[in-house]
């Protein structure tokens, strides 16, 4: 059964969670198919951006609790598989945009936080429900805590309270919260901007955003200057500068038709 679907157009692959009957819960089959879809997008040079979307009214309800109950005594629970998914999203060298049209809970918030850009409907709701189940939001903390403000993380983790899209944007979980009818246009706008960037430059910028700074400012600047020079001297950098001077799209910009 296909629980994840992929479609590509104009350099953008939309990876869709398609298990609405169980609110796109993070079952092992769904996560396995999601990893496969990401792997295919990674190796396809035509893919410049990945959009993570969903069918049905719910983005993702978190771990598949039915499977978790069955697997608890038998082996690896789905929450452990989620670590593989979050690592794949966080380390993905191409930009990832999360399109969140409905509620997300627990592990689903880990997916959203792992994306580079996340856009939600203002009406969407969110909650870290783990403590109310007697468990903790351990795995998702790797992607969530770098996004949230410390006070908000403390409040939302400990209370499990529901919050809306506007609050999600205020505390850093999502990039933007927009009216539901404008969600697709907002996502498309980000994708249009992202495909203008050079593929290697985008991957390098993602590394830059997640690097560990050097201990001293001089070492920091020396390393960054060397890195910058390498990109300016690269074939991609030379093409980008030439295209700018010639007032034309760079060679890597896909046809939008």
TrEMBL record:
Transmembrane segments: none
SUPFAM superfamilies per record: ClpP/crotonase (SSF52096)
CDD domains: crotonase-like
Alphabetical list of Gene3D superfamilies matching this protein: 2-enoyl-CoA Hydratase, Chain A, domain 1, Lyase 2-enoyl-coa Hydratase, Chain A, domain 2
A Pfam family per the record: ECH_1
Gene Ontology MF, one: catalytic activity
InterPro entries: ClpP/crotonase-like_dom_sf (IPR029045), Enoyl-CoA_hydra/iso (IPR001753), Enoyl-CoA_hydra_C (IPR014748), Enoyl-CoA_Hydratase/Isomerase (IPR051683)
Family of the protein in this entry: Belongs to the enoyl-CoA hydratase/isomerase family.
Name of the protein in question: Enoyl-CoA hydratase
């Amino acid at each position: 059964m296909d629980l994840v679907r992929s479609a590509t157009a104009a350099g953008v692959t939309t990876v869709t969670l398609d298990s609405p009957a169980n609110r796109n819960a993070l079952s092992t089959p769904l996560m396995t198919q999601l990893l496969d879809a990401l792997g295919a997008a990674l190796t396809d040079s035509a893919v410049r951006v990945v959009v993570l979307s969903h069918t049905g009214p719910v983005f993702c309800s978190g771990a598949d609790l039915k499977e978790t109950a069955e697997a608890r005594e038998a082996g690896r629970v789905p929450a452990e598989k989620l670590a593989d998914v979050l690592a794949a999203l966080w380390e993905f060298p191409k930009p990832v945009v999360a399109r969140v049209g409905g509620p997300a809970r627990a592990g689903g918030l880990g997916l959203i936080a792992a994306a580079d850009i996340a856009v939600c409907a203002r009406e969407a709701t969110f909650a870290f429900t783990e403590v109310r189940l007697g468990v903790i939001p351990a795995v998702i903390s790797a992607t969530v805590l770098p996004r949230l403000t410390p006070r908000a993380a403390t409040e939302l983790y400990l209370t499990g309270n529901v919050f809306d899209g506007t609050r999600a944007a205020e505390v850093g979980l999502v990039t933007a919260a927009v009216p539901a009818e404008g969600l697709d246009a907002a996502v498309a706008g980000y994708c249009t901007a992202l495909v203008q960037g050079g593929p290697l430059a985008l991957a390098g910028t993602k590394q830059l955003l997640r690097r560990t700074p050097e201990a001293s400012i001089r070492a920091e600047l020396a390393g960054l200057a060397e890195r910058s020079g390498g990109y300016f001297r690269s074939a991609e950098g030379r093409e980008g500068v030439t295209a700018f001077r010639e007032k034309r799209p760079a060679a890597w910009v896909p046809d939008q038709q």
